[in-house]
Design brief:
globular, TIM Barrel, 8 helices, about 35% helix, about 230 residues, binds the ligand O=C(O)c1ccccc1N[C@@H]1O[C@H](COP(=O)(O)O)[C@@H](O)[C@H]1O, eight-stranded parallel β-barrel, two-stranded antiparallel sheet, alpha/beta
Length: about 230
């Protein structure tokens, strides 16, 4: 169980940016590993620690909570820690490795790499070697959640072969492109926000279901194919 579980024979799924009770009830009905709360005020998916506490109370214990932050203040971290069950921290800003470790303490954390043709992946991986997984995302306005894919060809095949077991792939995923994404990366997990929304910040239950179905049927197809 869990987004960072390497023993699963399937692709782990995180749905990010849930902000309403209805989103949580839908998540509870899907066999997903994690949901994300966005504690970044400019985001259309922002929830306060108090809201996250209430939403967390109705979330299934089987589903992990990822706390997504972008260069957070100490005060915000304190508030999140005191109110929310955080299973994994997600750092999506310019946090240094030391700052990630300081905030996360004993809780696992993931650092997002925002990929463009200037990005030096080797340096990033060395710098953030303590990250339990690396989130690969696109460069978008507002740090993330922009529904944009990055150019997958920028990631060398050899790097994918050696490191995909530590990758949570994100950036513009949806039920139509996720099979190709899994075939290309064979990642530890996939992370989606915009692709399961009717409009920015508004999750659509049918799209959430379709995304999970697409991931699970891709895994099944790949296991039958034996690849
Ligand atoms: O979701 C947001 O609003 C957000 C804000 C700031 C940083 C990251 C954010 N979300 C993360 O962005 C990626 C990609 O999301 P999308 O599927 O392309 O919309 C994902 O890791 C979200 O967790």
């Amino acid at each position: 169980m869990g987004l960072l579980n390497h023993q699963n024979s399937y692709t782990n799924i995180k749905i990010c940016g849930l902000s309403k009770e209805q989103d949580i009830l839908v998540a509870n009905s899907l066999a997903i590993e994690a949901i994300g709360f966005v504690f970044y005020p400019p985001s259309p998916r922002y929830v306060s620690p108090q809201q996250a506490l209430q939403l967390g109370n109705i979330l299934s214990d089987e589903i992990q909570i990822v706390a997504l932050v972008v260069d957070p203040s100490d005060e915000l971290i304190q508030e999140i820690r005191s109110q929310v069950r955080v299973d994994i921290w997600q750092f999506h800003g310019d946090e240094s490795p030391a700052r990630c470790a300081e905030i996360a303490q004993a809780t696992p954390w993931m650092k997002a790499a925002r990929i463009d043709d200037q990005f030096v992946l080797q340096d990033f991986c060395l710098q953030y070697s303590a990250s339990a997984a690396w989130i690969l995302d696109a460069v978008v306005e507002g740090f993330g959640g922009g529904g944009q894919t990055f150019n997958w060809q920028l990631i060398p095949d050899i790097w994918i072969k050696e490191n995909a077991h530590r990758v949570v792939l994100s950036g513009g995923l949806n039920s139509h492109n996720v099979a190709e994404a899994i075939a290309h990366f064979r990642p530890l997990g996939v992370d989606i926000s915009s692709g399961v929304e009717a409009s920015r910040g508004n999750k659509e239950p049918n799209l959430m279901q379709q995304f999970v179905d697409a991931v699970r049927s891709t895994d099944q197809y790949n296991s039958i194919k034996g690849s």
